[in-house]
Amino acid sequence: TIRWSHPQELDFSIFTGPYQYRLYQSQGLSGSYTPIFTTASQASLFDCDTFFIQNNLNTESQFYYYRVALVNNGTELGTSTSGSTIFLTLVPNDNQLELVWNENVPWVNTGYEIWKEMPTGSGNFTLLATTTVQNYIDSNLLNETTYCYKVRSIGGYSLPGIQNPLLNWSNVSCAKPTDLTPPCPPDLGNLIQDCE
Asked: pTM score > 0.90 for this model?
């Protein structure tokens, strides 16, 4: 679900409508933006929809950038700054998984919630922890057992009149802890040197 706010300053005596919003999407920061949705034309700006639900996205292998443009009488007046979804990856280790996520948003995130599917495959996610950094280690796990997670950021703008807080969900990511830590080297100081 992509949501946006109406512009805070617009001279309605100059820009008299009709109004629309046009939503653009890019796969990655350097990708080209293509229009994916345009609201119905409205005589009042405040009658225009400010959300869109996009389905059938491949969120497991990539994340997406969005921006929205205000259209007045068929002409784009300007676009918002781009904002991305959160992309979560899991790094396995012995009895633990490290969650690492990336995003690129124009607002300030003040916290992140880590949600864990319990039990795996149930579709039920439980809040596991909160943090202010973009990584988290879940430990005391069983090796070779699948665990699934998603992350929600909480943030906002400092400007009044814009929805607050802004919530942004990551993809669901699953992995198995695996013992990748090599054993400690042996102590060779006590070996008998003249054995056959």
From this structure: no
CA distance 170 to 176: 19
Residue 191: pLDDT band with limits 50, 70, 90: low
Question: Tell me: the pLDDT tens digits for 55-78?
Answer: 998 888 888 999 999 999 999 999
| Chain segment 100-116, per-residue pLDDT in tens | 999 999 999 999 999 99
Peptide bond into 165 cis (omega under 30): yes
